[in-house]
Write a structure and sequence with these properties.
- The protein is mainly α.
- It has two domains: 153 residues, no CATH class; 91 residues, no CATH class.
- It has a two-stranded antiparallel ribbon.
- It is elongated and about 85 Å long.
Length: 258
């Protein structure tokens, strides 16, 4: 068969089946990679779910304020359906306490807050109805808040150190070779489909350029936190283009000749 006119649909059945199986393996690998990324890096900043701050922490390092401080400033628990706004004096006392220098020491200090009660008393009264140990497990909001050890997870700054340079270098080595090879293979297969030249070029450019930007931004972000946006843009461009190429190649392998 002339290489210049090679088309996937003209390959023997066994070859088309083999390529289809490999496409499914690659797709599964990308899905597994995404799940691993979310599971491994999520909540690094002390907040549930994967966020831009988590990614910034991995490559640059980040310090986030106490979660309790953020919640109080947002008016919690008033924003929750059926939630009652915290008394303003109690809210001011808790904010003064959680932004102070002696958080652990003042937790049970009855003299803290000009007679409004200790931070422990105020917190237990405000949070216990939803997060307390006496609330049935099926109705209790997460996290459980009953002891100081449970509260303290919300009361201190959360410092995320960047990945060690040696580990980042090893990860770059593995990702560059593996993803670079896979991208090269998919681009070659894409050019053997019957789709338009414009679409082939666009997807190949997004996949290869996105991968380059993503990997380069890992190192740039170590110096400049704002470069984390390039990690997101490059990663999305690469993953999106790869996903579309997988679909396009799979369709072209099996759609009719005419």
């Amino acid at each position: 068969m002339d290489v210049a006119t090679l088309r996937l649909r003209n390959l023997p059945l066994a070859a088309r089946l083999s390529l289809t199986f490999l496409l499914l393996v690659i797709a599964g690998g990308y899905v597994a990679s995404g799940l691993h990324l979310s599971g491994h890096h999520a909540a690094r900043d002390g907040r549930p779910g994967l966020s831009v701050t988590d990614i910034e922490g991995v490559y640059h390092g980040v310090t986030t304020p106490p979660l309790l401080k953020e919640l109080l400033e947002q008016g919690h628990p008033a924003e929750v359906s059926g939630g009652k706004a915290l008394d303003e004096d109690d809210r001011a006392t808790l904010l003064a306490w959680v932004t102070g220098d002696r958080i652990a020491e003042n937790w049970a200090n009855i003299d803290f807050g000009d007679g409004f009660g200790s931070p422990e008393e105020i917190a237990q009264a405000a949070c216990g109805s939803c997060h307390g140990a006496t609330v049935p497990a099926e109705k209790r909001a997460e996290p459980l808040l009953a002891t100081w050890d449970q509260y303290k997870e919300l009361c201190f700054e959360n410092r995320v150190s960047p990945t060690d340079p040696a580990l980042l270098l090893a990860s770059t080595h593995a990702h560059a070779l593996a993803l670079g090879t896979i991208t090269l293979l998919l681009c070659a297969l894409m050019y053997a489909t019957r789709f338009s030249s414009g679409l082939k070029g666009l997807l190949a450019l997004c996949a290869s350029g996105g991968l380059l930007v993503d990997l380069a931004a890992w190192w740039l972000t170590r110096q400049v936190a704002g470069m984390v946006s390039l990690i997101l843009l490059g990663g999305l461009a690469h993953a999106g283009a790869v996903g579309l190429m997988l679909v396009a190649i799979g369709l072209d392998l099996w759609r009719p000749q005419r």
